[in-house]
Amino acid sequence: MPLHIRKIVGFCGFIALLGGLCGPAQSQPAPGRETPSNAAPTYRLPPLPSSIGEGNAAAGTAPARGDPAQQMSAAQTAAPSPGNAPFAATPAGQLPMNYPSNQNPAPDLNVAPNGTSAAPAQSIAPNGTSAAPAQNIAPNGLPFDFPPPVIPVATPAAESAADSSQLMLSPVVDENITLSNMGQPKGLTLSGGQLQSGITFTLPRDQVVTAARLNLQLEVSPELAARDTSLRLILNGQDLGTVALNQGAGAENSYELEVPAAMVVSNNNLSFSVIDENALQCERDASNKYWVNINPASHMQVTSQLLDIGQDLAAFPRPFFDKLNMKDASVAFVFSQAVKPEAVEAASLVASHFGKLASYRSIDFPVFIDELPLQNGIIFGLPGEQLGGITLPQVEGPALQMMVNPQNPVYKLLLVVGRNEAELRQAAYRLVSSPLPARQSSLQVPKQDIGLRQPYDAPNWIDTTKPVTLKQLADDMDSLISNGIYHDGIRVGFRAAPDLFMWDGDHIPVHIEYRFPTETWIDEDNSQLNIALNGTFLQNMPVNKHGLLETVWRQLGGDTRQESYTLQLQPYLIYGDNQMEFYFSLKAKPDAPCNLLISNNIKSRIDPDSYIDLSGTHHFSLLPNLSYYVGASFPFSRMADFSQTVMVLPPKPDAAEISTLLSMAARAGSATGVTLNHVRVLFGLPGTQSARPALAEKDLLVVSSLKNSQFVQDLLADSPYEIRNNLLTIKPEKLRDKLKGYLLGRFFRQGVEADRYLASTSVWRGFLSYQSPWASKRVVVLATATESNELAKLNVDLRTSAINAGIRGDIAVINSENGVRSFTVGSQFPSGEMPWYMMIIWYANQHIIVLSITGLFFAVIIGSCVYVLLARHAAGRLANSANK
C-alpha cells in the first residue's frame, strides 16, 4: 500500500476513535436502582439532636449496657444529629412544617464565628509557655498525617463472598417489641388526672442496638385535640421529643420517631406525659373528657448486632435463653438420625427448665434430626454418634461441652452426652440444677443424687397447709404500695393446685390489712379500696367504719378508721392461675389545691402480713378433666418431678411429635417451677407382659399424630375411642354401660355429638383423655392431630386464652375454622384424699339415683320387718282378747 494512502487511513481511524470517545454515552441504571417517576416520596422525621444522644454519657442518666467497648460500639453506630433544636413528631408519611427542604453542609471547623479563618489552637504547657500544636486526630483514632491503610480492590466474586461471610459472622437481629410484649395487652390510656404513665422493656444482654425506631398508634379525644396539646416522650430520662395531639380527633394516627441507638440499653423506661397536664388536672369536672389511648400494637423497632459471648459454660442459659428478651423464645434441640428415648428424656428435663425460666412467656423447641441449626442449639446423644457433620466426643461418663456452631461461629452448640439413660439424665440434671463453673467450655459430671418430690409440693403452688401472707406471694414489698392519687392497681398473683375441694357453704378466708393516707384534703366519705379476684369484683373497703355509733364517735373527733377486714371467698373463685387486685380509689375534696393532686408523696399500702388461708380445702376431683391438664399439667404435676408419669411417643417419632412433647414438658415446668427430673420416655407401648409393669401405677402423657394408626389403635384398645378407616371415632355405647351411667348419675354424656363432629372435620388437632387400662386410678392424656403439621400448632393454641378456657371434658377438638369444641364421652372416677365420712356424703351427693334406690330398698326391708313385728304383736293381742 502506498505511503500516502496509509497516512490517510490512519488519520481517518484517529478521527473515528476521537469521535467515539467524545460522543454522548447512554448509561443503563444499575440493577435495583430504578426509581420510577411516579413513586411517592418517603419522608423521615429529623433525628434527635446530638446533645440528647450524648447526654447519656455526660449526665449518666442512662445505664451502660454491657461493657464499655460494646457501649462505644453502639454509640458509634447511632446516626448523627443535624441540630440541637427540639422537634415535634408528625404522623408517619407527613413532612413536618419546619423541616428544611435541603440540608446545609457541615460547618468548617477552621472558620471563626465572625467568618474569618481561625488559627490552629495551641495547647498551653503547665508552666504557662506555649506548647507544640496538638496533633489532629481522625475519627478512627489515627493521626491525620498517618498514611491510610492499603486496601486491596476485591474482584466482584471475592467481594460478594466477603459480604456473605461478614453477614454470616455478624448476625443482625430485627424485632418489634409491642406494648403487649411489654406487659400491656390492652395498651395504655392517659385520662382524667392520670395524664402521665410509663412502661419498661428489656433487651438481651448479648445484643448491641444499632438502630431503633418508635412507632406510636394514638387515639385522642376531640376535647384534648382541641386544646392543641402535645405528648412528651422520655426514654431513660432523656427527651425523645413531643407528638402533636391535634392531628385527628377520635381517629387512630400513626407516628414514627427515630431513636438514637446509644439511648437504648438492656433495661429501658419509656414515659408518656401530656404537656398540658397541670392545667388539665385542675379541671376536675371535665377531666374525663381528656384522654389519649396508646394502642397495644405500638412498638419499638430495634435492629441489633449479635455478640459472640464465647464458650463459657457459666453463661448458661445464655445464649440459648435470656430472661431480658421480651419476645417469644425458641431453643433448638438436635438429635441423631436414630433418635433414642433416653436422649428425649434428657431433652424433656432441659425443656422443663426453660419453661420454668420462661414463666408466662411462650417458648418453642424446633427439633433437628441429623442436622445442625443455623442458630444456637443443644445436642443430646451418646458418645461417638454422628449428626449434622460432627461426632460427639468419646467420654467416660456424663459430660457437658460448649462449642462453636460450624454453621456460624457466633452461634454456639451445647453438647449433653452420656453413655446410657442414667448418664444422660445426670448430665441434664447438672446442667439445670446449679450454676456451671466459670471459664470452662467442658465439664465431666460427677454422679449426684436426684431426690424425689412429695405430692403437691410444687414451689409455684400456694401452700394449702397453713395461711400464706401476701409478702410471700408479692415480688417485693414496694409492689404493695401505691403512690399518689392516680396510680395503677396493686396486683398479687398466685397459682394453686386445680383439684382444691370444699363443700358448698364453706368459704376461704382472706384477711386484708390496709392503710389509707391521712391527708386532710382527701374525701374520706367517697374514697375506698376496691378488691377483685381474677377480674371478679369482690368488695369495696371504706376509709372509716360505717354505723350509727361510729358516725357519732367520728363527729366527736374519735378515730373510726377501718384498717382490716376478712373476706369470705367462694371456693369456685379460686383457679389454677389467679390474680388478686387492690385499687385505692382516692377522691380529693373540692377545695384541694391542684399541686397536691399531682403529688406522689402520699402513699396507700396493703400490709404485707395480710393472708389467704386455704388450709380448709382438700385435694379431691373427678378425672379425667382436660381443663386441669391445660391449666396446670394436672394430674401429672401432682408429683412435680413427674416421677409417676410416663411420656410415650410412637415407635418412630418425627420432629413435630418430639417438639410437641418438649413443649408439654416446658408447660409443666412453668406451672410447677420444678424440672422433670424423674420423667420416663418410651417409644411405643411395651410389647411383652413382663414390660407392662412399666405402665402400672403411672399416668401416661402420649403425643402422636393419627398417621401412626396402629400405635394409636393399640393405645385406645380399652378406651371409649377407636380408629376406624383411619379416622378417630367414638365406640358405640352398650346397653349395659348406658344403664350403669344412668345409675351413677351420668345423664349428659355426648358420645354421639362428638362422633358426628369428628366425622365432619377432616383436619383437626386436640386432646383426649380416659382412665388408664394399666392402673385403675390413673389417666391417659393423648395430644394428637390428623397430621404432624397440625400437631405442631398445639403449643400456639394453648397460648390463646379463648382456646385454653374452652378445653374441658375428656375430648377437645381444635381447628382453624371453629376454634375449640369440647365433649364429655367417657366415665369419670374420683381421685384425691378426703376423710371417709366425707366420702360417704360425697357419694350420696353425686349418685342420687343409687341413693334413692338404696333408700327405697332399706325402706322396704325395714318396713317389712316392722310390718311382721306389728302383725305378730296384733295377733298376740287378739289371741289374748279371745282367751279373756
From TrEMBL:
InterPro entries referenced in this protein's UniProt entry, alphabetically: Cell_synth_B, Cell_synthase_bac
Keyword Signal (UniProt): yes
Transmembrane residue ranges: 848-870
One GO CC term, this protein: plasma membrane
Keyword terms, alphabetized: c-di-GMP, Cell inner membrane, Cell membrane, Cellulose biosynthesis, Membrane, Signal, Transmembrane, Transmembrane helix
Predominant location category: membrane
Biased composition (Polar residues): 25-40, 70-79, 113-133
Membrane-protein topology: Single-pass membrane protein
Gene Ontology biological process terms in this record: cellulose biosynthetic process; UDP-alpha-D-glucose metabolic process
Disordered: region residues: 25-140
Pfam family, any one: BcsB
UniProt pathway: Glycan metabolism; bacterial cellulose biosynthesis
Signal peptide coordinates: 1-27
Localization terms from the record: Cell inner membrane
Its biological purpose: Binds the cellulose synthase activator, bis-(3'-5') cyclic diguanylic acid (c-di-GMP).
Similarity-based family: Belongs to the AcsB/BcsB family.
Quaternary structure, from the entry: Tightly associated with the cellulose synthase catalytic subunit.
Entry protein name: Cyclic di-GMP-binding protein
